Every structure is written in C-alpha cells, then in structure tokens.
Amino acid sequence: MAAVTASGEYRMRAVCRWVALAAALTLVSSQGSTQPAGPASPPPATITQPPPAGALPSGAAPATSAPNTSAGARDARPALVPQPGDPGNVDEVILPEKAVLILPGTGDWNTGLKSLREAFALIEAELARRNLAPIGRPLAVFTQTSDDAFRFEAMVPVTSAPPPAPDLPAGMRFGLSPAGKAFRFVHQGAYDEIDTTYETITTYLEVKDIVAKDQFIEEYMNDVSDQADVGLLVNIYVQPR
Question: What would the DSSP string read from start to end of 206-234?
Fold first, then answer.
C-alpha cells in the first residue's frame, strides 16, 4: 500500500479512483351558547396586586437565550444516524432529510480541516445571529476534487428552514441535507490519516460492485482543531446511485 502523506495526495487519488469507477459503471448500468342578558349590576371593585418577584410586566415577551455554540454543546448534538458506527465495520443506513444552513467553499489537502472549521464557524455565527439553534453535527458534502484542492458544501442542521432571507451572507443559503440509503464508514484518528479510510472505501465499492454518487459526506462527531489530533471521529457516508 502506498505511503500516506500529510498533503492528502493519497486521499485525492483514492477519491478520484472512486469517482472514475462510478462514472464507468454508470455507463453500464365549536362555538359556545349565548345566555340572555340579565339586569345590569355594578362592576366589582378592582384590587391591584403587585406582581410577584421576577414576573414579567403584562404583555412583555420572555427573553430568549442565544444558542449554545461551545465545543461541548456541539459534541453533544446527535448524529444523522443515532446508532453509533464501528470503525471496523460498514453499516447500511438511511440518512434522514434535514433542514440545513449551507456555505460552499474550497480548500486544499494540506489545510482541509482548517477550511472546514472556518466554514462551520461562519454558519454557527449566522445561526446565532438569527437565534436559530443547531440540532445536529456539522457536515461537509465534497462535490469536486483535483490534484491539490477540493470543493465542498459545509452544512449545519437546524429544526426547520425559515422563509427566504434576503440578508444572508454572500453564498450562504438554507437547504436540505442529502437523504436516503447510504453506506457508513467510520474514521477514528487524525484527519491527516483519513486517506487510509478512503482507500478502504474505494476497495469496498470495487469488491461489492457498487456504483456510488459522485460526492461523499463527512460528519464530524467531535470538535478538534489540529489535523494531527488522533481523537477525531468522522462518519463518512457514501450513497449508491
């Protein structure tokens, strides 16, 4: 097996093999009752009581707290598939459709995790500005790769997408996450070493003769800032065509 490099070239080759294989195989393949009015009577006396301590004035709306976007709160958010995966197994799962806030971006293989984290931070800041609470783990849908770079769509799930907002930052939009049947692979270890997991994915698709969509989804199960941090846990979803 070829050596894994921090530059991500091995991962790029694995993904390109995957996409090429997919392209080749595709070629083959009720109202209340009214009481009568009685005689008028004097109105009862009104006694004004002081409001209890801590009570809101009449008509005042309760204050809403900003969503908790700390690393601990992000790690506590549920995954797309509640049952945890096993790095030693491949699971066939059904991805639920989630409303998400999306931000497209680009990155290179050397600093891929940094680019993704920056995109997630922008999304989280916009959700906090709108007082919308995230309800799931950050996602990245990789849509295109080249020798030294990649294109992705960063996503953070929310309860529901609000009406179209004209004041969203440039490039940002609400949409839906990929849904339907998928194969889940689990990467546990440094992001620099994720290449080996993609080689496993490519081999699995070839052996099982699975025609995959020309994209893949990464779901980040914990929050790390260093590509060499071996504590990283990533769910990788591959959807068949």
Answer: HHHT--B-S-EEEEE-S----TT-TT-EE
Cβ neighbours of 215 (radius 10 Å)? 18
Note the pTM of the prediction, 2 decimals.
0.73
CA–CA separation, 171 vs 217, rounded Å?
20
Structural domain boundaries, residue 122: 9-25+67-162+169-238
Q: How far is the C-alpha of 136 from the C-alpha of 95, rounded, in Å?
A: 13
Give the CATH number for residue 188.
Answer: 3.20.80.10
What is the mean pLDDT of the segment spanning 96-107? 97
Q: Which whole number is the average pLDDT over 68-94?
A: 82
Region label for 116, one of left (φ > 0), alpha (ψ between -120 and 50) or beta (otherwise): alpha
The percentage of the chain sitting over the pLDDT mark of 90, rounded to a whole number, equals 60
Q: How many CB atoms lie within 10 A of CB 227?
A: 18
